[in-house]
């Protein structure tokens, strides 16, 4: 996300604050300072200071909620990339998804549980400590804020925590994670439309329920829920497919012991794919290097019969390999995560089946979609 300031790290997790959060800090300080000043006129300018304290405690409450998600994820062995606070709350960015629906459930519910616990704690402090005056007002506010955080986040639509809980439940029932995402993303989009609708009605003065914030939050939900929905569709299409299915037909592979002349005649000339690099394999079908078609230009064509591909090849260091049986969904995640242009697909005897690229996956999905329509 753009506009994030690194504040430090907490329990080894990098912690960022989005610049939009300072808008919230300012608004809450101003709004609450004004309210306190009105209720307790004797405070004078100190009311603003209390407003700032309340805003910072709101900040701490959101942070505690995100740490709740993060700790459960860490316990499941999932690294937490970062925690970011932004305009609409917080976000704990996890390296990967939980492996099972029950683990996903606990990661999702942990944040709201922390918020509910804080609500209980502040309520208990308010009741049993016999607080009065502005301190009591702030403790009351914090109890209310944490209750609101828990309640809002438990709405059962993605990208909210409740949406992740719903996803985990549907995943558990159907055995298919993408079914869970699809259902929870639809509820998320529905909630988004409700928010946008209520927000618009209130902005035009037709309804007293909602505000500009309802409109903005609704819009935020719509955007994100839709993105989850698309991801679920891709996951559904990829399910059941393996790396071997997306191997490019006629991948650029050449044996090491043929001459450059044979290489040019039988592989390069007239090849519509126009590959600039070919993988070089030995007699056993194992990858031993790669050869660039440009490298042949340095050799006089008269010598092409006498020189073997093996002599011009370079070590194939940049290429990552993947097992042909690996689920295609994991392959896509790997390509995305490592920003790889292509992968070499190997069978169980480490023989090369061919290359796999993002475009070959897209072509495979298109072909399957057309086959379904036909
Ligand atoms: Zn949460």
Report on this structure.
α10 (328-338) links the parallel β8 (320-323) and β9 (342-346). This protein has two domains: 4-154, no CATH class; 243-373, CBS-domain (Roll). It is an alpha/beta fold. The strands form three sheets. The protein has a four-stranded mixed beta sheet. The chain has a three-stranded mixed beta sheet with strand order 5-6-7. The mean pLDDT is 86. α2 (46-75) packs parallel to α4 (133-153) and α3 (101-128) runs antiparallel to α4. The longest helix has 30 residues, at 46-75. The protein contains eleven helices and ten strands. The structure holds zinc ion (ZN). Zinc ion (ZN) binds next to α2. The site of zinc ion (ZN) has 5 residues, from α2.
Task: List its traits.
four-stranded mixed sheet, 2 domains, single chain, 15% strand, 10 strands, three-stranded mixed sheet, elongated, 11 helices, 374 residues, alpha/beta, binds zinc ion, CBS-domain
Question: What is the topology?
Answer:
Blueprint: E1 4-10, E2 13-18, H1 20-39, H2 46-75, E3 80-86, E4 89-94, H3 101-128, H4 133-153, H5 161-174, H6 177-203, H7 212-238, E5 253-255, H8 260-268, E6 277-281, E7 287-292, H9 309-312, E8 320-323, H10 328-338, E9 342-346, E10 352-357, H11 358-373
Parallel strand pairs: 2-3, 5-6, 8-9
Antiparallel strand pairs: 1-2, 3-4, 6-7, 9-10
Bound molecules: zinc ion (ZN).
């Amino acid at each position: 996300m753009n506009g994030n300031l690194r504040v430090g790290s907490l329990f080894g997790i990098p912690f960022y604050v989005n610049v939009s959060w300072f808008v919230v800090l300012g608004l809450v300080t101003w709004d609450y300072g004004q309210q306190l000043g009105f209720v307790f006129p004797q405070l004078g300018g100190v009311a603003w200071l209390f407003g700032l304290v309340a805003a910072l405690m709101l900040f701490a409450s959101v942070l505690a909620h995100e740490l709740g998600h993060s700790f459960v994820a860490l316990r499941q062995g999932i690294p937490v990339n970062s925690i970011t606070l932004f305009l609409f709350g917080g976000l704990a960015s996890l390296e990967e998804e939980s492996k099972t629906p029950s683990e996903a459930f606990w990661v999702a519910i942990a944040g709201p549980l922390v918020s509910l616990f804080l609500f209980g704690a502040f309520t208990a402090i308010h009741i049993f400590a016999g607080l009065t005056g502005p301190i009591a007002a702030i403790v009351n506010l914090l109890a209310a804020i944490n209750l609101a955080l828990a309640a809002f986040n438990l709405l059962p639509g993605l990208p909210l925590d409740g949406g992740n809980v719903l996803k985990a439940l549907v995943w558990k029932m159907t055995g298919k994670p993408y079914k869970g995402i699809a259902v929870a993303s639809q509820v998320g989009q529905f909630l988004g439309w409700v928010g946008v609708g209520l927000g618009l009605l209130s902005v035009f003065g037709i309804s007293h329920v909602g505000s500009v914030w309802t409109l903005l939050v609704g819009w935020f939900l719509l955007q994100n829920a839709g993105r989850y929905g698309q991801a679920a569709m891709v996951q559904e299409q990829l399910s059941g497919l393996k790396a071997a299915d997306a191997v490019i037909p006629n991948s650029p592979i050449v044996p090491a012991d043929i001459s450059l002349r044979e290489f040019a005649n039988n592989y390069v000339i007239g090849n519509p794919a126009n590959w600039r690099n070919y993988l070089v394999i030995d007699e056993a079908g194992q990858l031993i290097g790669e050869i660039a078609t440009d490298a042949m230009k340095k050799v006089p064509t008269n010598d092409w019969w006498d020189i073997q591909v093996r002599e011009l090849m370079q070590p194939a260091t940049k290429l990552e390999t993947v097992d042909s049986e690996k689920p295609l969904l994991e392959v896509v995640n790997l390509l995305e995560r490592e920003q790889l242009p292509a992968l070499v697909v190997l069978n169980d005897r480490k023989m090369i089946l061919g290359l796999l690229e993002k475009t070959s996956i897209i072509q495979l999905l298109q072909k399957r979609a057309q086959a379904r329509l036909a």
